[in-house]
Amino acid sequence: MDILSILAESTRSALGPIAAIYALAAVGLNFHFGYTGLLNFGQVGFMLVGAYGVGISVAVFDLPLLAGFAVGLLCALVLALLLGVPTLRLRADYLAITTIAAAEVLRLVYRAGFAEPLTGGVYGLQNLSSGFRALNPFDGGTRYGVGALAYNGNHMWVLVVTWGLVLLMVGLTWMLMHSPWGRVIKGVREDEDAVRSLGKNVFGYKMQALVLGGLIGAMAGCMLAVYQASIQPDQFKPQVTFFLWVILLLGGAGRVFGPVLGAMAFWFLMTFTDGLLKGFGSMGWLPFLSGPDYGAIQLAFVGLLLVVLIVFRPQGIIGDRKEMLINVK
Amino acid sequence: MSSDETNVGVDRMADAEPVPGSAKPDPILVADGVRRSFGGLTAVDVGHLEVQRGTITALIGPNGAGKSTLFNLLTGFDRVDGGRWTFQGGAVNGKSGHRVARAGMVRTFQLTKALTRMTVLDNMLLGAPGQFGERMAGAFLRPVWQRQERENTRRAMELLERFKLVDKREDMAGSLSGGQRKLLEMARSLMTDPAMIMLDEPMAGVNPALVQSLLGHITSLRDEGKTVLFVEHDMDVIMGISDWIVVLAQGRVIAEGRPSDIRSNQQVIDAYLGAQEETAEVGGSDDD
Ligand SMILES: Nc1ncnc2c1ncn2[C@@H]1O[C@H](COP(=O)(O)OP(=O)(O)O)[C@@H](O)[C@H]1O
Ligand SMILES: [Mg+2]
């Protein structure tokens, strides 16, 4: 087992396109939960409509990529309104239940037989990235970067655009949260009745936050479609949302860079444990396990990580412990 | 404190009859038939109630009389079963809480609602009305809202100075004592520049040293022309600073009048003051 190559591979993964896509989706979730206190347990649903917005536009209707992005974002807007209008006036748990159910229903509908002409059913959609590659300023054949951190031109292009979007959205977060708008949003998280009693339209603010975070989630879905060049409905299982929550709590909810650091740390650790397990396996240290079991162990590890985190560092990597420990009532 | 100290020679309610539902010369709030029941229990059933502009009106009654519920109804924090009410001449029934607040009728809560993980100053700034930067698009136009922010900060600092919280401005509101939170909540609601302020048990859980300064704040608000409606249990406090007292029992207004009228009202003594003696220790606690 070569620990150095495992570390290199983990670093590559922490900086890779998947980490960037999860960071983007987690920036959206940070608006929901970190700042506004909305319990969205269906962020993957926004990713799904974003990804299929690109997929269906490009693969079925032969539209340009930009139109695909627009369709994806529009679907996310509609989804946010459908989720928010009936629930945001009610107690927080109604949104939680509605989002978790809606995301799963969406996945089942998109994979259903009757949807196949549009969504490709269980097989999903393919050939989605020619429009994106046409814009690629890098040369698809050459490798960029050094050593383990070298990527071919196509991946490099995805990386630049996705991390670019992450930075843009982080900047947007900073701008908004350091403004009076952000102050109202944080007030809603603390006590919405108090904010209402000061003449602020709490429902409107919650809706804005839900839409904004949902749009950013859809953007992550769009980039996923572009990066993979194909999408399948079963990529959008509830565990994606679970990973996003781990990422947010790991990095620090309600912190501008929390989701970014969280995503990097999360994918570093995922790849690291994977490499370690395979290494141990190849050295015969894990005789009672076979290859497919590693995935389960890895997931158990994520769960354990979450528990340890909540016990020892509830504020995440860059959270403010003092702020976290203030009694809420 | 005796009533003579604060009300020397001034009877702001000279023209009002001390009977339930009596008409006032210049009412800021007029409510008719406001009802609310929870299951079989009628929590509020107020036939007619007027609150005189520019006075301190106390709302008293035993625990569970419906005082907080009436506050919630009037300010749009709970839905009525029936009834209409106007504020400064305009109908406010059916309006949601934030609209009522914008109309100039702002309330505090029996269980203090400090925004604990925000600084004292941010709590205050949240109260300022008409902020351009509170619109999502406006948030990006820094130079525009920063000017407004400076002006609001100046007002917030003045109020914090007055409420003796200015040294705490950068502290998290969650680190304040219970009494300081009550002060903050009151100062914050004044940031909205209301015409009427409704305080639900502002003295509950506040240490005696702070009570005096709170009372001072309430009277000076009245002297600045604001209308104050407040719920309180401490009879000395109520008799001392109120221009008018409304007595609620089992959701109904059973008596209204000047402190001297209420003190001698047999119905009130039976329904409330007698009971008050027995539960004097419980009266001041934060119960809901
Ligand atoms: N949300 C509610 N659900 C059921 N009963 C309630 C609710 N709010 C208040 N009540 C009941 O209404 C009555 C009036 O309560 P409240 O207005 O809090 O009294 P007060 O503030 O005068 O002490 C009480 O009997 C209380 O139990
Ligand atoms: Mg009460």
TrEMBL record, chain A:
It is found in: Cell membrane. Keywords: Cell membrane, Membrane, Transmembrane, Transmembrane helix. The keyword Transmembrane helix applies. It is a multi-pass membrane protein. The chain crosses the membrane at residues 14-31, 38-59, 65-85, 156-177, 209-228, 240-258, 294-312. Its main location: membrane. This is Branched-chain amino acid ABC transporter permease. It comes from Nocardiopsis sinuspersici.
TrEMBL record, chain B:
One of its GO terms (molecular function) is ATP binding. The keyword Membrane does not apply. Keywords: ATP-binding, Nucleotide-binding, Transport. One of its GO terms (cellular component) is plasma membrane. Pfam families: ABC_tran (PF00005), BCA_ABC_TP_C (PF12399). Residues 1-26 are annotated as: Disordered. The keyword Nucleotide-binding applies. Residues 29-275 form the ABC transporter domain. This is ABC transporter ATP-binding protein.
